[in-house]
Amino acid sequence: MGELWIQANERGITAVSFDALPIQTSAPTSDSAEAHLAQAMAELTDYFTGQRQAFTVPLAARGTAFQTQVWTALYQLPFGVTASYRDIARAIGNEKAVRAVGAANGRNPIAIIVPCHRVIGTNGTLTGYAGGLARKQWLLAHEGVGQRPLL
């Protein structure tokens, strides 16, 4: 999977990204940010070792109201379950916003914890992923999705 960059503020995790330079290069400025980072690292380790299927670390992503609504719907997708962009649009009560859901999904700053990797095409195909399709495929296989139909 490569390295993950995790960032936090006093409210929670603000970013988890793959192989990228940190969005902010300064160290956390509060004890609570340090605690959120430690919790995220522990929970991600548990996820990758097969001991965790859901995350409890507080999140503090910044985005538009619409993006936040999409990210909240993504966060509610259970481990090992996929959904299409249309499914997410329906879940937020805006069935015509499929393309906007795709754009918000692509701007998700908190990879893995907010599981945008669980979103696939309506026809069951893997679609774009900021971490790359190989990572998306690995994450889905890790969750038991790869050996059965995705829908």
From TrEMBL:
EC number: 2.1.1.63
Keyword field: Cytoplasm, DNA damage, DNA repair, Methyltransferase, Transferase
Source organism superkingdom: Bacteria
Every Methylated-DNA-[protein]-cysteine S-methyltransferase DNA binding domain range: 65-145
GO biological process annotation, one example: DNA alkylation repair
Chemical reaction(s) catalysed: a 6-O-methyl-2'-deoxyguanosine in DNA + L-cysteinyl-[protein] = S-methyl-L-cysteinyl-[protein] + a 2'-deoxyguanosine in DNA; a 4-O-methyl-thymidine in DNA + L-cysteinyl-[protein] = a thymidine in DNA + S-methyl-L-cysteinyl-[protein]
Domain Methylguanine DNA methyltransferase ribonuclease-like: 2-60
Key word Membrane present: no
GO molecular function list: methylated-DNA-[protein]-cysteine S-methyltransferase activity
Annotated compartments: Cytoplasm
GO CC, one annotated term: cytoplasm
Pfam families linked: DNA_binding_1 (PF01035), Methyltransf_1N (PF02870)
Active site feature: C116
Family: Belongs to the MGMT family.
Additional remarks: This enzyme catalyzes only one turnover and therefore is not strictly catalytic. According to one definition, an enzyme is a biocatalyst that acts repeatedly and over many reaction cycles.
Known role: Involved in the cellular defense against the biological effects of O6-methylguanine (O6-MeG) and O4-methylthymine (O4-MeT) in DNA. Repairs the methylated nucleobase in DNA by stoichiometrically transferring the methyl group to a cysteine residue in the enzyme. This is a suicide reaction: the enzyme is irreversibly inactivated.
Name of the protein in question: Methylated-DNA--protein-cysteine methyltransferase
Organism: Simiduia agarivorans (strain DSM 21679 / JCM 13881 / BCRC 17597 / SA1)
